[in-house]
Specification:
Blueprint: H1 2-5, H2 29-39, H3 42-52, H4 58-86, H5 90-93, H6 95-98, H7 104-135, H8 144-165, H9 167-191, H10 198-203, H11 209-225, H12 244-272, H13 274-282, H14 284-291, H15 297-326, H16 332-353, H17 357-385, H18 407-421, H19 448-451, H20 455-470, H21 472-513
Helix pairs in contact: 2-9, 2-12, 2-15, 3-11, 3-12, 3-13, 4-11, 4-12, 4-17, 7-8, 7-14, 7-15, 7-16, 7-17, 8-15, 8-16, 9-15, 11-17, 12-13, 13-14, 14-15, 15-16, 17-18, 17-20, 18-20, 20-21
């Protein structure tokens, strides 16, 4: 029946190829629930305290959050449109911009960031759960690590099952979690109003306005860039007749409304009380549980845990596509399985080595954001200036419309990343090598321009300029080849149809003549 044919398969087997038309039945509103569930988490609450801790006033922190979510419209929206148009994962569509072989570099970046982000979310879940149970006396203090590993491991198993089943399970889970999170987030705000002291919060003086841009970079990195390489993966089941503008709008609203509300509220709570600020930056899940009445933490923690799990599910699901786009030849579920195993090992390492969320949100996140911003700029600019859609069959093979390497875009991706890392800073072990261009630029590591990590915005801007300045002639030639390939396919289909009809009509014609 048509109603059944229009549904996605129970276990998703579609990988890098375009989603078949009979499965493309999703409405744009579904994208809202997916992104709402992913971003209505304790990560956003903690981020409000982190950007306030940069040395900003409350109004600067809220303005930084607003700028950050506004910037997030660009990579999320353009990735959504590209996925909807082609029906393929983001890192496959990216081959049109970087080449069928050259795209291996951004695909590898996508894979690494999916691993880090899924492990970070599971780390928050495991560490927060352990701290709550130890603090309540239900678990002895010396069992904290074991409990954290157990909670994170259980979360990984649940996320792996949902991601392994595929998009249908992800969409259903997101819709349920989004509804629960919306109610419980409102409850969180209502029940923590008593901790707000506007007199104290508004008394914090303004910091350097360059640092406010640094706060916007953190928000942009956590909301827009963290998911930029996954946005098309959840848009490829959109029905062909749905509006691209509607898909872009629902994606933007779902990703930014809960994120902005929680970031702003986290900043308000942190500005009202330094103890709350410290708790949100070290272990936000435990801090939230301590602020609320005895009857509320259980449902809140459940909702927050589910939201973290939704983020982990999307990261694992998208990571499977990225692994296949790098070059692994395997079914979709096998790609997810490999990503799950790598994520488990990385999560365990984070639980052993990382003490609080600040290092994750300030250092790891912005370090990963630099190459993603460069990619998003180049990919997004080409998407905006295109006059026709990509030729999907050529994205799956060498020797088609697209060259093996589009050298200008690949070289600029590497150069922009290297230059932008030279203008960012990090103190976490293993990441402190950044900032190597600050000295030649006459800046110190503790200057506002350095600590603001403006290299992320520079990478985005330089990426946007690359196709506009150096790539329009090549893109026009590419689009001519895309048009000719599409026309040749259309002629071949007509010829095939005529050949199939001719044998059936020939005998009748002979009988009439006789």
């Amino acid at each position: 029946p048509a109603a059944i044919a229009a549904r996605e398969p129970g276990v998703e087997v579609i990988a890098l190829e375009p989603t078949p038309a009979e499965y493309r039945a999703g409405r744009s509103i579904r994208l809202f629930w997916v992104w709402f569930a992913v971003n209505a988490s304790v990560v956003s609450l903690a981020l409000g305290a982190v950007i306030l801790g940069l040395g900003l006033s409350l109004r600067q922190a809220v303005l930084a959050a607003l700028i950050g979510v506004a910037l997030s419209f660009l990579p999320l929206g353009l990735g959504t449109l590209a996925g909807k148009w082609s029906g393929q994962p983001t890192m496959v569509v990216s081959r049109a911009t970087f080449g069928t072989v050259g795209n291996g570099i951004p695909a590898l970046i996508a894979l690494l960031t999916r691993l880090v982000w899924s492990a970070a979310l599971l780390w928050m879940l495991g560490a927060g759960t352990a701290e709550i149970l130890v603090g309540s006396g239900l678990v002895p203090g010396d069992a904290r690590l074991v409990v954290a590993l157990g909670a994170a491991g259980a979360g990984l198993v649940i996320a792996a099952v949902v991601a392994g089943i595929g998009f249908r399970a992800l969409a259903i889970t997101s819709a349920i979690v989004a509804a629960l999170a919306a109610v419980l987030v409102v409850g969180l705000i209502v029940l923590t109003v008593s901790y707000v002291d506007l007199g104290v919060a508004l008394s914090i003086p303004d910091g350097d306005w360059v640092l406010m841009l640094g706060g916007a970079v953190l928000v942009f990195s956590a909301i827009g860039l963290a998911w930029a390489m996954s946005s098309g993966d959840v848009a490829r089941y959109q029905a062909r007749g749905t509006s691209g503008s509607a898909a872009l709008l629902w994606t933007a609203l779902g990703a930014t409304i809960p994120a902005f509300a929680l970031i702003a509220w986290g900043a308000v709570l942190a500005a009202s009380n330094p103890v709350i600020a410290e708790g949100l930056q070290t272990n936000p899940l435990d801090l939230v549980a301590r602020l609320l009445p005895l009857w509320y933490p259980a449902p809140l923690i459940a909702a927050v845990a589910l939201s973290l799990l939704c983020g982990a599910v999307l990261a694992l699901y998208s990571g499977g596509f990225a692994l296949l786009a790098v070059g692994m030849r395997a079914p979709r579920w096998a790609g997810v399985l490999v990503v799950v195993l790598l994520t488990g090992a990385l999560t365990a390492a984070l639980l052993l080595l990382v003490a609080d969320t600040t290092a994750l949100l300030r250092d790891v996140l912005t370090t990963a954001a630099v190459p993603i911003a460069a990619w998003a700029g180049i990919f997004g600019a080409e998407t905006m200036i295109r006059s026709r859609r990509v030729h999907s069959p050529s994205l799956l093979r060498r020797g088609g419309v697209y060259p093996a390497v589009r050298w200008v875009n690949v070289i600029m991706l590497v150069l922009i990343t290297a230059a932008a890392w030279g203008a960012t800073t990090a103190s976490t072990v293993g990441l402190a090598w950044q900032g190597y261009l600050l000295g030649p630029l006459g800046l110190t590591a503790d200057s506002p321009f350095a600590s603001g990590d403006l290299g992320v915005l520079a990478a985005l801007l330089l990426g946007l300029l690359t196709p506009i300045v150096a790539g329009i002639p090549a893109l026009r030639a590419l689009q001519t080849a895309e048009r000719e390939a599409s026309e040749a396919e259309a002629r071949a289909q007509v010829d095939t149809g005529s050949a199939l009809i001719a044998p059936a009509t020939a005998p009748a014609s002979s009988e009439t003549t006789a």
